[in-house]
Amino acid sequence: ATTMMVGAGVGAQSAAAAEMVALLLPENVNPRWEQQDAAAFVRTMAAIAPDVKVEVFNANNDTSVQQRQAEQALTQGAKVLVVIPIDGESSAIIADTAAEEGVPTIAYDRMINSMNTTFWVQADLEGMGYDQAMHIINNTADGDTLVMLKGSPTDPNAAVIHNGQLRALTPLYESGARVMGYENWTQGWDPAIARRSMDQALTKLNNNVQGVVSSNDGNAGAAVAALAEQGMAGNVPVSGLDCTVQALQLILLDQMTQSVWRDFDMMAEATAKATVALINEDSLDGIVMGTSPANSAGKEVPMVPVGFYNAVGEAGVQYVIDNDPSITKADVCKGEAAATSFCK
């Protein structure tokens, strides 16, 4: 397990008395967890609660490792667990174990299906899926064939994103205005699996593909690589989610056409405020902005919904650079993207 130690007390006295919270990341396949989410949470906690130490763990897509890391954090005296679960069901044991020790669990981005989930921070995933699909619909024509590269079957968010896509696409599939050529889930959101799916789709459909509804940037990058091999990159619209540096570069290169950006700072701020309130045993009333639909354990979890932005073209890339502190123009303007007009 990789552990990043972040923040330390000033002088021995406050270090000894420092409170600790744990941030449990699901994997490092998608760069957003370390580079965007963790960075934003650590930065926000340092600003609003400098005496609280944040320990960051990464489970590398192994649910048993994530459970062990949660136990380790509790043993080390964590006052709050902030968990991005690998699997919404198996992570329930994390929240339940923490609750037995009187420690609250915040579900960040993905729901934890437990009665003991204290708080949830989430963006409108179904809306994002709908917008991904609408982007592909608006950039394809009647009778066009689409490929759907869905997310991980164990991530509860993947199904919600897909439901949003289907809300836009089902009527068109039923009328024949669009043809569902191929679809597949992507275990662990692993781009290598998405690449195999896209290669299979192109083989099966004899390259007759006019659009790719991809649920995130890792899948989108895999789709672009497969399309490039067939000389098709840049001719087929491809959607995404997360606005990673690679995705922004592919957008500038006209090989990927859309990605969805979430306000990671806003998510981090809501999470950090809730974390501090829970450490101090204060009410979450001023922070919570609603409740979730009941999770599979039957709990409606107090939540903060966060907005999102559709990044398309140079204007979209510029918006993300302006609004995401973890991404600079210098980061994006590297490699092939450096030669684009945007970077000159």
Query: Low-confidence segments, ≥5 residues, pLDDT <50?
Result: 1-16
Shape: globular
Give the radius of gyration.
Answer: 21 Å
Helix/strand order, N-terminal first: EHEHEHEHEEHEHEHEHHEHEEHH
Main sheet, how many strands, which sense, barrel?
7 strands, mixed
Number of helices: 12
Strand content is: 15-25%
Strand order of the largest sheet: 1-3-2-4-5-6-11
Class derived from helix and strand content = alpha/beta
The overall pLDDT average reads: 93
What is the rounded distance between the termini?
Answer: 41 Å
Helix content: 40-55%
Number of E strands:
12
Distinctive features:
disordered N terminus, single chain, seven-stranded mixed sheet, 344 residues, alpha/beta
Please, could you describe this protein's structure?
The chain is an alpha/beta fold and 344 residues long. Helix content is 42%, strand content 17%. It is built from twelve helices and twelve strands. The strands form three sheets. The protein has a seven-stranded mixed β-sheet, with helices on both faces. α5 packs parallel to α6 and α7 crosses α8. The longest helix is centred in the middle third of the chain and has 20 residues. 51% of the residues are buried.
Task: Summarize the structure in short.
The chain is 42% helix and 17% strand. By secondary structure, the protein is α/β, with parallel strands linked by helices. Strand 4, helix 4 (92-100) and strand 5 form a beta-alpha-beta unit.
